[in-house]
Here is the input.
Amino acid sequence: MTTASAPKISFVSLGCPKALVDSERIITRLRAEGYELARKHDGADIVIVNTCGFLDSAKQESLGAIGEAMAENGKVIVTGCMGAEPEQIEKEYPNVLSITGPQQYESVLEAVHRALPPMHNPHLDLVPPQGIKLTPRHYAYLKISEGCNNRCTFCIIPKLRGDLVSRPANDVLREAEKLVAAGVKELLVVSQDTSAYGIDIKYESSPWKDRDVRARFLDLTRELGELGAWVRLQYVYPYPHVDDVIALMGGNILPYLDIPFQHANPEVLKRMRRPAAQDKTLARIHKWREQCPDLTLRSTFIVGFPGETESEFQDLLDWLDEAQIDRLGCFKYEPVAGVTSNALDNPVPDEIKTARWNALMARQQKISAQRLKRKVGTRQQVIIDEIGPSVAKGRSKADAPQIDGSVYVSSRRPLKVGDIVTAKIERADEYDLHGTVAGF
Ligand code: SF4
Here is the structure.
């Protein structure tokens, strides 16, 4: 390598928002050391692939990305969830330079240093104080903990990422404050189990401004709401204290919860060993909606879990009718290598999984469309994500980036990405809303 110009790295980030936060941290460190990011593999000195290993399909996508990087560049460092089980990668791509698991930032950096030494005089001021964000400047993911104390039988994450490790509250708040100062208008709070935040550090207090803040979901959420940006809560389990968080919603704490319920039938939930699985969930949802009528609920479900009977599946459909979840993602059960649910009796044949998936999606589509239609005629605040030739694309408080729908707005005044405007909603289609800006 010639060292006249800065060493260049091409970075591929796959997987969930939590993996994206890891990528941001690695890139921030590399930029601090004087490395530059390349747009393409073939213009880079080296490629880093941050993999996802959650499902077999994600593993295939990761292997595909490694293969592409090997073909186009040849010098490849692999990290992330799939790196916790390196055998499969080594088998297909024996010439990758190094493989490390999630959160092993130091090992990734060491591997980069070995293959591509940093410039002699790294300028620390290359990095803005809020770090490097891979998300657009107006929103950012905020990871409050790593790992998970639960042991859901279908999930490999605790094996890959270890037990829950929460960040001190003031550490999270400092990062959030820097992000907001740098122009971020929406903070997306993520972790594997957001409502379990702080359990591992016994909700320890840490000094923040003129007060002490406990490392508790409720306390942290309240403080984040003081920073002036929207706060969206993701991957929340319905533990009892979530009821108190609903009371905070309305201002900057968005009336939105992403709760991966996964199923509704108590027997299936038991076999899944889901946290906070209990039959009072429907009553809780009704109570939350009474307290906060604008609440949007997003969830994910698994169909075809081992042993799922027709009547258990029917329970799930009935539950959906009652719960009126606004947004829903559904997976067919995949027997991911290494998970304990693979040992359960009565696996569900693939064609039944597909039939149940179709039935669930059809049922939900109606519910989602009806709920969306109720917004026609209302005024909604919209954060602008993209400016188009005739309309701008944005999201209301009910829409998380990348997973939910959009709001398309026309405006007489020019808009900028990151603006938050009030729009009058005129029309709804299956997933999106359409309207006109009525206030700034
Ligand atoms: S809560 Fe369950 S599904 Fe989520 S990361 Fe933990 S073990 Fe996996």
